Description:
CATH class of the largest domain: Alpha Beta
Strand content: 15-25%
Number of domains: 3
CATH architecture of the largest domain: 3-Layer(aba) Sandwich
Structural class: alpha/beta
Helix content: 25-40%
Shape: globular
Mean pLDDT: 79
Number of helices: 14
Radius of gyration: 24 Å
Number of strands: 21
Distance between the termini: 49 Å
Amino acid sequence: MEIIADPVLPPLPADEYEALKASIRERGVLVPILVVADRQVAEGEERLRAFIVDGHERYRACRELKIPPAPLRVLDPTTPVRRRELSIRLNAERRHLSKPDRDRLLEEYIKAAPHKSTREVADACKVSQSKAARAKARLLADESIPSVPTLGRNGKVYKKPTSVGVESLKGARDAAGLLAKLGDQAPEGNQSIRKIRKAEYRAGRIAEADGPLARLPADIQILLNDFRLLEKHTGDLTGKVDLLFCDPPWVEEYRHLLPEFGAMAGRLLKPGGVLLTYTMQSAVPAFLDAITPHLSYQWLMAAVNFDARPKEGRITQNHGQSKIGNGYVIQGWRPLLLFSKGPLKTPRQVNDLVFNTAKEKRLHPKGWQQPLPEARHFVERLSRPGDLIVDLFAGVGTSALAVALAGQGRRFIGCDVDEACVKLATDRVAGGLADASPMAG
């Protein structure tokens, strides 16, 4: 069984660690190392793993002393998010933390459990309720966590009333109209008018997803299922895919899917096949760790956001902010990682810097959508006529439509777990809804 360390805090100071190590050398491990069991079955083989929840320093000392890391206490399998939540709670209770470490732990706990009430967060992290409330408000404001209903200790869900700050009577009328349309779908808590407009637009996209599926061309398939179950619908695709063009969820909540994504990509691609995947800057190491055991890393591409194009030698607008530590980074581009199965030989020259020349109508209910022109750019340069292109996270069908527009006998298979997205993607491809605007790159 493989034991995996996933610490939520930096290592102990050297003097404290050496004291712990000396104690273990003399008396052994007195407090059991707490682990969570995890079982996976891949290609008919069972794999057992244990993730350390509490006892990373004890485990490290045992390895350095070359003694068995025992005793252990094994917990039932749980989700990575719940596992991290438990690890943070135990560290907050047992370790003497500096103020920066406790602040970091507080933010990590809120990110792992955004549904927890302020009181529960404060109790778990050993801070005041006011400090927990300020931290949660800060993370909500910069969109580091989603706005979700609060789950109280009694198991009931409590939705905070929505409040929209405006500067004029017209703004008040607009906000009132939007909130009336949204009803119970309005995001809770303090919101800007911009966020309320986005919520209303996305609610409309979901409503449009009602009704029968449109008919697609025979060479375009968009399926409603988990990517890991794709071949139950398509048959075995091992070694049959020419191009995997994917945009997996980047956020921490979904990163446990990356190892299976990487393994599946390596299996599906034919020799010489290519994987091009979107990611985010902070997730690049996780993507590389998950994919390079199966495919060869080749290149980093950059898709520059429409509102971050240089003007008079400088970037004047930002696409959004990403929080790193206690600061912010203005994000002006999105990275794409290029991998291949064996040596890379692209059908055509491909630009590694692509500019979007226009904003697009957002269709995805959560706003997760990439521009069509850049998708078509990559499809046409990384695949040949007649090739099979697969997207394991099809969303609202940007890659599917790019393949349909590229034509020349190219075939497409995509899947998504969101029923509304599958319906929107199908309608979008069938009706040719996207604006194939020109690109400079």
